[in-house]
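Inputs:
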Amino acid sequence: MKEPNPEVFADCPVAGVQKIVRGKWNMVIMYFLHQQTLRFGELSRKMPMVTQAQLTKDLRMLESYGLINRKVYPQVPPKVEYSTTAMGEQFMPVLTALERFATVYEAQAN
Amino acid sequence: MKEPNPEVFADCPVAGVQKIVRGKWNMVIMYFLHQQTLRFGELSRKMPMVTQAQLTKDLRMLESYGLINRKVYPQVPPKVEYSTTAMGEQFMPVLTALERFATVYEAQAN
DNA sequence: GATACAACTTATCTTTAAGTAGCTTAGGTA
DNA sequence: TACCTAAGCTACTTAAAGATAAGTTGTATC
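Outputs:
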């Protein structure tokens, strides 16, 4: 989003990371994992409105973006822990900014 | 996003404004209108990959959220100007934060 | 032998977002 | 008379995202 003029701005850096922000649950996941490392089940219980299938997809997506870590313990039953990466922490200001805006917005909408 | 614990956080303030961030073109529109007031056609020409129908929808959506103004001049052919509202300006930090993150992200992804 | 556990898959269905194409309006110009 | 303009609207189609429900795995306990 550096170039106001070009007709096609495929080079816009924001375009590349927009998917993170456009996923319905990504922000919530990042919020919880920013607070603490969590197992799949723990996270799932914090977000009961999200199905396991969806949560799996979203976690994989965030992992592929390098925002979260996925640590597997070879056990039975399985144990998998999720945590934010350094890059994931860099993302937090976006969430904070949105949260701040939301607060202002709700206050005005009375 | 204030409450880490509750099972259902429908009261999360972010949920209410998430739609703004989840629209594919809303950020781009806000970016351009933040720079200057623009007519529909001018904006459309800056975003040639967006059809007029879609642009109309998105502008109406942003207007309904109170982020942009729509000023109609009763002329023929019609003239309509779009600009950001005070609330719209409050939204800018979100875009800035995302832009900053995007820059860091692209740099690392090399 | 049946049931339970955690962390998934897989398949299918529904919803939402986005894209495409053509129509409209009212006055001005060729 | 026909065509052009700006800023739409309408109807339709396609694609993407999300939701639902059931099945899988390998131990371990009842």
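Remarks. Chain A has one domain: 13-109. Residues 39-41, 44, 52-53, 56, 72, 75-80 of chain A lie near DNA strand C (CB under 10 Å from a C1').
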